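Design job #97: recover the sequence.
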């Protein structure tokens, strides 16, 4: 079972909106492709299957610019994101995008990359973005492999007579697990995962064994895994918390420390860095002068102000949370900097709920960090048992997931038990099961913004139901399994293709998208 890190895969990456699968995932694929090639390519041709999600979303969601930023080794959060395609051409990178049938389009986010180095060396990769910014390289020059960016990964192809010598050199130090042996075209292939890069002298010795040796190396795009997870299910997680008399946030903190080899202080620091990004995106999105959306007028600030002035039906913490969630999505939709939580399309829910709770309860920074870790542990279970990708299982695993995670964070922050936090998350999932992904015009605006707002408000209801005594009879693990099964049963028209649901109503089709200013201003930069 693949170990999942909260920092790597659940509450992160810090990214430019609007989509972690498409914007951040594209960036990570580009970054890994660049490291395998050994530098910025002179030419890059990227292809998407017409029945996949990228075909409809790669331009409106900024995947094209995400790929370019990764291939050029530029931070995704840099303001040059808005000029990435022009910058690429000016720097000597000829990049183009095609929609064409792919041979094995088994995942909706499959990308075929044909790259050429400045010296003329070709590289053919097949990759997929699997949700929340996580990615996998599945083929290198037609050789099957699985690189996921969580460590230094090497594919070595050697003649059989040199296999043992190559194996010894590849495993000199820093190896994670046992090298995987693959047979291919009369050669022996070793897939090796390492905590550190291969030293240049070792690389030289391997290549000196034979002129028929191929080495492909990929650098990590996340924190490197250095240990084993503490748990792989909600049942194990809750049991361990109860045995150690820990909260959900505390047991999640211990998990991250063990898996990534980081100190508690380092994990807390990283969590608070993400929280500060969340707070910043709330503040930017509440600005009444915010612009940059292409379908919606910005409205979060006016809603927040109306609540403050008592002009709504009631004064409500839930409405404040909803307005703050909308604010984050305004920033996300205009390609500003947000924290995927767990995805770009659901980035508003946890900030909306937690910033509101922190204000109401005067939470300490440590309480906030542990509440985020509690939220992350719920997302981690979903990542292990299912997916964060709406392209695979609908909006229920994005905004539905963030609502469940926010409910757990609220329970943890006010002193609830790990079981109560897990149960609050479970009923959150149960009440959003079957939600489709039907974004209008391929943009993360309608109905994504209001769904984020409603999920942030509902997180308090779900938390309080459990804290008040509601008994949940379907545990989180079984609930997630049911959610995933329902998602897989959805037709592709309802999974982030903009070919069903609200996206094909007459009013939706009549909407004419405007343009984000793209200047890196306070709204979109």
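Job complete. Output follows.
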């Amino acid at each position: 079972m693949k170990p999942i890190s909260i920092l790597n895969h659940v509450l992160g990456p810090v990214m430019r909106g609007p989509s972690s699968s498409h914007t951040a995932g594209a960036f990570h694929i580009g970054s890994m492709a660049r490291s395998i090639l050994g530098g910025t390519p002179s030419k890059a041709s990227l292809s998407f299957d017409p029945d996949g999600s990228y075909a409809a979303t790669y331009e409106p969601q900024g995947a094209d610019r995400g790929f370019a930023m990764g291939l050029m080794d530029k931070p995704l959060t840099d303001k040059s994101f808005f000029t990435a395609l022009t910058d690429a051409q000016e720097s000597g990178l000829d990049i183009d995008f095609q929609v064409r049938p792919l041979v094995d389009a088994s995942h909706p986010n499959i990308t075929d990359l044909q790259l050429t180095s400045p010296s003329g060396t070709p590289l053919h990769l097949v990759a997929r973005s699997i949700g929340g910014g996580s990615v996998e390289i599945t083929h290198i020059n037609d050789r099957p492999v699985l690189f996921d960016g969580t460590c230094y990964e090497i594919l070595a192809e050697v003649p059989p007579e040199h296999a043992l010598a190559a194996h010894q050199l590849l495993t000199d130090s820093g190896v994670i697990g046992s090298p995987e042996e693959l047979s291919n075209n009369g050669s022996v292939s070793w897939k090796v995962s390492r905590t550190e890069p291969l030293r240049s002298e070792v690389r030289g010795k391997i290549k000196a064994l034979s002129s028929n040796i191929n080495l492909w190396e990929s650098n990590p795009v996340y924190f490197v895994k250095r240990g084993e997870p503490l748990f792989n299910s909600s049942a194990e997680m809750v049991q361990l918390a109860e045995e150690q008399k820990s909260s959900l946030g505390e047991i999640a903190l211990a998990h991250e420390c063990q898996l990534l080899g980081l100190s508690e202080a380092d994990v807390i620091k990283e969590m608070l860095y993400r929280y500060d990004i969340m707070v910043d995106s709330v503040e930017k999105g509440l600005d009444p002068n915010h612009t940059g959306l292409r379908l919606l007028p910005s409205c979060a600030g006016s809603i927040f102000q109306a609540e403050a002035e008592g002009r709504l039906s009631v004064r409500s913490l839930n409405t404040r949370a909803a307005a703050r969630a909308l604010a984050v999505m305004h920033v996300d939709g205009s390609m500003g900097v947000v924290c995927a939580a767990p995805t770009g399309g659901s980035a508003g829910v946890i900030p909306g709920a937690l910033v509101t709770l922190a204000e109401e309860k005067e939470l300490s920074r440590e309480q906030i960090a542990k509440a985020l870790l509690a939220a992350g542990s719920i997302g981690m279970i979903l990542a292990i048992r299912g997916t964060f990708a709406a392209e695979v299982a609908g909006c229920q695993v994005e905004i539905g997931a963030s609502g469940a995670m926010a409910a757990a964070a609220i329970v943890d922050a006010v002193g609830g038990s790990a079981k109560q936090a897990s149960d609050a998350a479970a009923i959150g999932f149960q009440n959003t099961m079957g939600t489709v992904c039907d974004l209008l015009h391929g943009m993360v605006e309608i109905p994504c913004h209001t769904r984020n707002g409603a999920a942030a408000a509902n997180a308090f209801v779900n938390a309080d139901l459990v804290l008040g005594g509601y008994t949940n009879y379907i545990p989180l693990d079984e609930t997630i399994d049911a959610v995933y099964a329902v998602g897989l049963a959805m037709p592709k028209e309802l999974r982030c293709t903009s070919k069903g649901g609200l996206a094909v109503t007459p009013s939706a089709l009549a909407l004419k998208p405007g343009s984000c200013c793209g200047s890196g201003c306070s709204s979109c930069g």
